[in-house]
C-alpha cells in the first residue's frame, strides 16, 4: 500500500505497464493515456520518478509531442518551497548538506533541525523501494552513512522532518 504521492505515482506506472504486458495488450486506452499525461505534467521533485517514467512511456505511445516544462523544473517557482510541506521556505533550522555526490563507500549527511523535531533520511532505488533509513535524533550533527549494501547506480533520497518532506534529490553511487 503506497504511503505517499511518490509511492502512489510509482505504483500506478508499475501496475499499468505490468498489467498491459501480462494481458498482451499492445496499446493503451484513452483513459490510461490521459492518466499518464496528468502524471507527466506533475513536478518530479515532489511527485517522484513516476513523473519521468510517465514521460518516457508517453514518448513511445502518444502522438502529442510535449515538452514537460513547469515552474518546478525551470526554477520559476521557489525551489525550497517545492520541498517544504508548508508554504514557508526551508529555514536555517532545517539545513541539510549531503556529500559527496556521486558517492562510493560513504555518504556524509550534515543537518540541523529543531531540538524537538525528528528527522529522517531515506534512500530509494529507482523502483521506489526504500533501501536505507536513517533517523536523525539530534538537533545538529553529521552522520556517515555506509553505502556498502548498495550497488552502483542512481538513487533518490528523501529528507523529512516530523513526517513532512523537506527535500528530495538524486543520489549517484559509483563503486
Q: How does this model look, in words?
A:
The protein is α+β, with helices and mostly antiparallel strands and 175 residues long. Helix content is 31%, strand content 29%. The protein is built from six helices and seven strands, in the order ααααααβββββββ. It has a four-stranded antiparallel β-sheet. A hairpin with a 6-residue loop joins β1 and β2.
Keywords, separated by commas or semicolons:
175 residues, alpha+beta, 4-stranded antiparallel β-sheet, 3-stranded antiparallel β-sheet
Number of strands: 7
Query: So how many helices?
Result: 6
**How large is the radius of gyration?**
18 Å
Strand line-up in the sheet with most strands? 4-3-6-7
Described by the principal axes of the CA atoms, the overall outline is elongated
Sheet-strand content, in percent, reads 25-35%
End-to-end separation in angstroms reads 33 Å
Characterize the largest beta sheet: strand count, sense, and whether it forms a barrel.
Answer: 4 strands, antiparallel
- The average pLDDT score comes to 80
Helical proportion?
25-40%
Low-confidence stretches: 76-92
H/E element sequence = HHHHHHEEEEEEE
Structural class based on helices, strands and sheet pairing: alpha+beta
Task: Compose a concise summary of this entry.
The protein has helices at 5-23, 30-40, 44-47, 50-61, 71-74, 79-83; strands at 96-99, 106-112, 119-124, 130-136, 140-146, 153-161, 164-173.
Amino acid at each position: 500500500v503506497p504511503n505517499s504521492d511518490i509511492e502512489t505515482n510509482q505504483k500506478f506506472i508499475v501496475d499499468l505497464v505490468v498489467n498491459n504486458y501480462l494481458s498482451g495488450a499492445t496499446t493503451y486506452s484513452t483513459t490510461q493515456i490521459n492518466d499518464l499525461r496528468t502524471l507527466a505534467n506533475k513536478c518530479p521533485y515532489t511527485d517522484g520518478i513516476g513523473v519521468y517514467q510517465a514521460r518516457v512511456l508517453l514518448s513511445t505511445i502518444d502522438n502529442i509531442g510535449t515538452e514537460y516544462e513547469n515552474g518546478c523544473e525551470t526554477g520559476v517557482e521557489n525551489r525550497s518551497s517545492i520541498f517544504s510541506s508548508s508554504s514557508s521556505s526551508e529555514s536555517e533550522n532545517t539545513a541539510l548538506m549531503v556529500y559527496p555526490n556521486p558517492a562510493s563507500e560513504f555518504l556524509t549527511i550534515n543537518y540541523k533541525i529543531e531540538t524537538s523535531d525528528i528527522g529522517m533520511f531515506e534512500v530509494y532505488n529507482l523502483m521506489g523501494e526504500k533501501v536505507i533509513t536513517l533517523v536523525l535524533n539530534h538537533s545538529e550533527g553529521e552522520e556517515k552513512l555506509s553505502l556498502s549494501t548498495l550497488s552502483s547506480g542512481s538513487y533518490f533520497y528523501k529528507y523529512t522532518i516530523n513526517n513532512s518532506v523537506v527535500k528530495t534529490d538524486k543520489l549517484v553511487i559509483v563503486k
